[in-house]
Amino acid sequence: MASSITIRHCESHEDLKLCVQLQREIWGYDEEDLVPAAMFVVAQHTGGHAFCAFEGDKPVGFALAYSAEAHGHRYWHSHMVGVLPEYQNRGVGRLLKLRQREEGLKAGVKSIQWTFDPLELRNAHFNLARLGVVVRHYIPNCYGETTSPLHGGLPTDRFVAEWWLDSARVEQALQNKLAVSGGPSVLEVPLPTNISELKTTAPARVQELQAGLRKSILERLASGYAVTGFRRGSGTSQYILEPYED
Length: 246
Prior knowledge:
Helix content: 25-40%
Mean pLDDT: 94
Number of strands: 10
Oligomer: single chain
Shape: globular
CATH superfamily of the domain at 1-104: Gcn5-related N-acetyltransferase (GNAT)
Distance between the termini: 37 Å
Strand content: 25-35%
Radius of gyration: 18 Å
CATH topology of the domain at 1-104: Aminopeptidase
Strand order of the largest sheet: 1-2-3-4-5-7-6
Order of helices and strands: EHHEEEHEHEEHEHHEE
Low-confidence stretches: none
C-alpha cells in the first residue's frame, strides 16, 4: 500500500484547499475548528511546511508544521498529521512523518514536537515504539472542547511528543529495534486496551480513566520521569516511564 503513495510539498492554493477538506473528512470538524488554508500559507512562509499524500491523484493525508523556538532551541511544531480513515494503518502516516524527518535533517532542525491524545493507544504505540519519541510534558485540556465526534466531549488532554531526529533512540525505533526499558527505576501506568470501545459503551468510565491518568502522569513528570515506551497487551496496555535527562 505505502508503495503507491507519493508525498509532496503543497505547491498551490488548490493543494492547500485539499488539506482543509481532508480535515473535515478525517476529524469531522465544524468550520470553527478547521485550520484555514491561510494558516498553511503562513507555515510555508515562516520556516514550516505543508505536505500532502496522494494515491494517484487522490489526496489521502497531509502534514502541517510550524517553525518554533523555546529556551534557545529551534524546532518544528507538527500541528497536524492526518490520514483518511480508509487509508489508516497502511503506512501513510509513517511516510508523512519520515518525510518530515528527512526535511528536518536537511534544514538542520534537531527535533520535531507534536501533541497526541494519551487515550489513543494506537497513536501511543506508533509514536513511542515505532518513531521513538519521548514525552516530558502533559497539557490538560490543551485545545478546549472541540466539535470533532472523535473526541467524545472529553477534555483534550495531550502528551507533547519530542522526536529527536538524529538520536540513537530514533534510529533504533525506525529499524524496529527499540527495546522497552526495564529495571527497578522503571514505572508502568496501565490503561485498558479497549479504551476506544469504552468511549462509546462507558463514557463515564473513560472520564475516570482520563482523570486518573492525568494525575498519575503529571506527578511522575514532576519527579523527573519521562514517558519513554509503550507496551501493548490483550487486556491492559502500559505506558513506560523512567528517569530522564537531556
